[in-house]
Specification:
This protein is an alpha/beta fold. It is 40% helix and 13% strand.
């Protein structure tokens, strides 16, 4: 598991999640299985863990543990699976609130970054893919070659906060007019005129992030996931989320505060914000310096914890 992906803030996240050692929990982003293994180590024999991952490569990391069910699917469908599980326990129920805790580590796995042919990293000259689910129909090459200039600019600006997004989009459109942009190398060469001196990698990281988010519909999936957690968690159940960039962290923070990812507040008759969650930690928990030293990919991580309020 450690070669596939090193789990970030393992002890902090799992300790915050488990409130009932005999409960039912979800690891929404299985990956290398590190968080799931930590979770199982804290649970009793009667407990259950449902883990999700859309990357077929992650399925090979499943431990031999009867308490674990590994689902090859996007975590956006967590409410659907929760209702299915609830009906297994009580066929008459229509209430999907079955989980005592749900954990999501929103980072891209080290395996995906380090496997050249997946096309997630500018460190390799490889097919421009970036699909977390390799069976999905749309690749990064499809986005780069198929979107018009205005849409490419929107993707770069919104999902990567890319400087000179308009010029970057224009350069890509000019390059693909000569021949399709098929590889990471093609992409990097097309963007060469806009890359800032001594900060080329930082700029490319933003571009790659933007394309990856678009290809995998990450923001839409996160919105659907969080909304589903509202109904899939039992009252008193914990939601633990690790984020890595400002877009997703803002969505999670807004959701915990207001029950909506856009942060729009809905008031009750007394003028109070009607949110289904209560923040356990007012400020995000950050990785310790020792962890960052051993795993540099943890450096931008933020851990947020919320508890599902009891039904009124």
């Amino acid at each position: 598991m450690s070669e596939y992906h090193t789990p970030v803030m393992l002890d902090e996240s799992v300790s915050a999640l488990v409130t009932n050692p005999q409960g039912i929990y979800a690891d929404a982003t299985f990956g290398g299985g590190g968080h799931t293994a930590g979770l199982l180590s804290r649970l009793n024999d009667g407990a259950r863990v449902i883990a999700f991952d859309r990357d077929v490569d992650a399925l090979d990391n499943a431990p031999d543990d009867a308490r674990l069910t590994l689902v090859h699917n996007n975590f956006r469908f967590i409410e659907n699976y929760a209702l299915r599980l609830a009906k297994e326990l009580d066929p008459a129920t229509q209430d999907p609130a079955v989980f005592d805790g749900i954990l999501a580590d929103l980072g891209v796995s080290s395996h995906q970054f380090d496997t050249a042919e997946r096309g997630f990293s500018f460190r390799f000259d490889a097919p421009l893919d970036m699909r977390m689910n390799t069976q999905a129909p749309v690749t990064a090459a499809d986005v780069v070659n198929g979107c018009d200039e205005e849409e490419l600019e929107r993707i770069f600006r919104l999902y990567g906060e890319v400087e000179n997004a308009r010029k970057a989009a224009r350069l890509l459109c000019a390059a693909r007019a000569q021949e399709p942009v098929r590889t990471t190398g093609d992409l990097d060469r097309a963007l060469a005129p806009v890359l800032p001196k001594f900060a080329e990698h930082k700029y490319l990281a933003k571009v790659y992030q933007a394309l990856r988010i678009e290809v995998n519909q990450e923001m839409r999936s996160l919105e659907k996931f969080l909304d589903g957690c509202t109904r899939a968690l039992k009252p008193g159940g914990r939601l633990v989320v690790i984020t890595y960039h400002s877009l997703e962290d803002r969505m999670v923070k807004n959701f915990i505060r207001t029950g909506r990812t856009d942060g729009r507040e809905e008031k009750d008759i007394y003028g109070r914000t009607a949110t289904p969650f209560e923040a356990v930690n007012r400020k995000p928990i950050l990785p310790r310096e020792e962890e960052i030293a051993g795993n540099t990919r943890a450096r931008s991580a933020k851990l947020r914890i919320a508890e599902r309020r009891a039904e009124a």
